[in-house]
Amino acid sequence: MTFSITTWNINSVRLRMPIVEQFLVRHKPDILCLQEIKCREAEFPLQPLKDLGYRHIIIHGQKGYHGVAIASKVPLLEDHRQDYCGVGDARHISAIFERGSRRIRLHNFYVPAGGDEPDRSINPKFGHKLDFVEEMKALKAGAVPGISSILVGDLNIAPLEHDVWSHKQLLKIVSHTPVETEGMKEVIRQGGWLDLMRHHTPEPTKIYTWWSYRAKDWEAADKGRRLDHIWSSPDLGPFLDRIEVLKEARGWNQPSDHVPVTAVFKF
Question: Which residue ranges run through the membrane (predicted)?
Fold first, then answer.
């Protein structure tokens, strides 16, 4: 039984619904997790997804900013939204789905970007990001006996040396500073998570999921970062068939600066 889950920071779902539809028609994941949808629940374009078979949709949105959603071909149960840092931002949504006899809790995250200056004393956005990551350390992959876990999303941190185009040049750049990367590694360690994107593709192989809009020729420069992630509880690791990073989507019409990342399982 093959089963696939895609995560994608779409950077405004209403603006980019045409490429969402394009992706779903071609690649047909069972579940699509979107981040930075930038709309309220009532403004989310449900019908195009339902027309493609994604009839189970849950949304945690807000006006103009942030926002996460899960669109699924299979039923979603016990949906939950966590208000990390207690500021009212729509940055997390989760639900349980079932495959055969297996129950899996799926978390979809949009971690704060953190601004430009990696110093919380002068940049509150960076402090907010660090506080958010600190709270994530309490999230356990094995929180409930008998329920597996998958965590996906734009986590806005490239934790490993080969998750960025130049480790040395980005050590003082937000998303790859030591305090961020060590914080994310602790989320993984304390939560008992498995980094599925590195499960079959360990370092030193480079993996990127984001290329800046600021680059004149993003493909030629290839100055990417792995900001998007798929983790799981360790029991799902043996069932991972492959990870697909759709780099070509960065060159589509009106693209997001992130590309879809898909985990394919064979249960």
Answer: none
CB-based contacts of 84: which residues, under 8 Å, 6+ apart? 91, 92, 132, 135, 136
Model pTM? Answer: 0.98
- In whole angstroms, what is the distance from residue 250 CA to residue 8 CA? 11
* Residue 100, pLDDT score: 86
- For residues 168 and 184, what is the distance between their CA atoms, to the nearest angstrom? 19
What residue type is 5 in one-letter code? I
CB-CB contact of 125 with 113 (8 Å): yes
**Given this model, what pLDDT does residue 41 score?**
97
Per-residue pLDDT tens for 159-182?
999 999 999 999 999 999 999 999
Pairing outcome for strands 240-245 and 228-232 = unpaired
Residues 155/160/162/167 CA torsion (nearest 10 deg): 100
Average pLDDT over residues 174-202: 98
Burial zone of 46 (CB within 10 Å; 0-12 exposed, 13-18 middle, 19+ buried): middle
Model pLDDT for residues 98-110, shown as the tens digit of each residue: 998 999 999 999 9
Strand partners, 32: 6, 71
Residues 24, 32 contacting (CB under 8 angstroms):
yes
